[in-house]
Amino acid sequence: MFFLASLLSLLALSSASPIHKRYSSVKIQSNRNGQCLSPQGDALANGVRVGTLPCDQAKTWDIDPGSGSVILSGTNLALDAGTGNDNNEIVKLWTSYPGLYQQTWYLTDDARIAITGGTQCLDQGSDQEGTQTWQCTTGNTNQIWNVLHEGGNTPTPEPEPQPNPAPARGYDGLCVTVSGGTENNGSTVDLSNCFEDSWPFAHLQRWQPLTGKSDVDKLALTAHPHLCLSAGENPSNGGRLHLNACDGVTTGQWERTNGGQYKLFRTNLCIDVKLESQLFPQKPYAIFKELQIWECVEGNTNQVFDTVL
């Protein structure tokens, strides 16, 4: 079994720390008022607003340097920014959907917590505004958040268990993913955040050769081996990728080139990242880029994908 990660994301990883780190059960302190991020009231449920409380009364969170979900410790509730696109949106608890745009935050080296791929930051506004999203602005100290251990000290990140290379790419990479959260015949296939094995939609990123007996083969979903990657009946430049029954007449075979491209057998068409495509913040996870079929060009990094075992 393997999954496919775009070279664009892997290049970005080359400058990152080789060991993924995490902060577990920490408090997140606002630079503006010295209080800590916490749900408001006693209820812990979807829709509960998140604001700040004195740190000795605040709940703890699990947060990763870099990109990922911010999870209320001991729960499956994530910090959710509404749409994630607008100023002055409240932040709230919501069931965690890994990769969902409005729940995917980036903890920066300068202590900002920003929507990954967006323009909004976690912001501690006035007493009337409370904790909100606001356009990330250099020098805006309302957007600085300090990560604290229970004792009030800045924690040292602990290494995250690495059962295989997937987690390192699960936050920073983009992987070939069935859109929409279901394995339906005809579902489009695009790029989303790479999911860890434990995430509920990981099975929609795990691919394998159908027979494993040749360098030219159909690519099937490991958990759904009757569904394969397809470029359609008459593939041409700009055509979308989707799932199709592996025994269907329109399901082609793929050949992995020495340069890391996935080429439709007996054509000069390759899987290609559509650069002009925009982020689509759908549920249960966002699509960051569309995939298409395009004429193979040697050295075109939009067409090179890594195989992660």
UniProtKB/TrEMBL annotation:
Q: Does the keyword Chaperone apply?
A: no
Which segment of the chain is annotated as a signal peptide? 1-16
Q: Which UniProt keywords apply?
A: Signal
> Which Pfam families does the entry link to?
Ricin_B_lectin (PF00652)
Q: Where is the Ricin B lectin domain?
A: 25-145, 172-305
Lineage, top-rank taxon, reads Eukaryota
Specify the protein name: Ricin B lectin domain-containing protein
Q: Which organism is it from?
A: Kwoniella mangroviensis CBS 10435
